[in-house]
What does this fold into?
Amino acid sequence: MRNSSGVPDLLVVIADSNEAGPNARQREVEEVIDRSLFPRYIVGAPDPYVERWLLADPVSFAQCFGHQPVLGTPRDRDEWKQRLVKALTDAGEIVTQGGAEFAEDIIDAMDFYRAGQSVPTVQRFADDVRAALRQHAT
It folds into this structure.
């Protein structure tokens, strides 16, 4: 989306929270955004990693891939990535990029209400996107 002045209507940035936490990561990203170029922006900070977001709605994941992932509480990025890869390979998929190649399919199938109930940072991001789109429409 672009407005008539040549300034993008909205910048969307997603950066893993990692050990910093979602609020700290969001502040870090906001500090480096040039507001003269991007007056409107949204920062999504998956807590702790984007793989957690991709596994946030196991029901829709199962509807999409025919296999429901086992979640548990992995401790680090490698464990979350392994959990995503295992869920995909158990579903019969060939994973070549750590599961990232299936992100669009997973997100397209996702029920954001259910995912947001499971992972609060998904809910925050979805709410921010909805608010930005409403604001843009007015």
Observations:
- The first helix runs from residue 22 to 32.
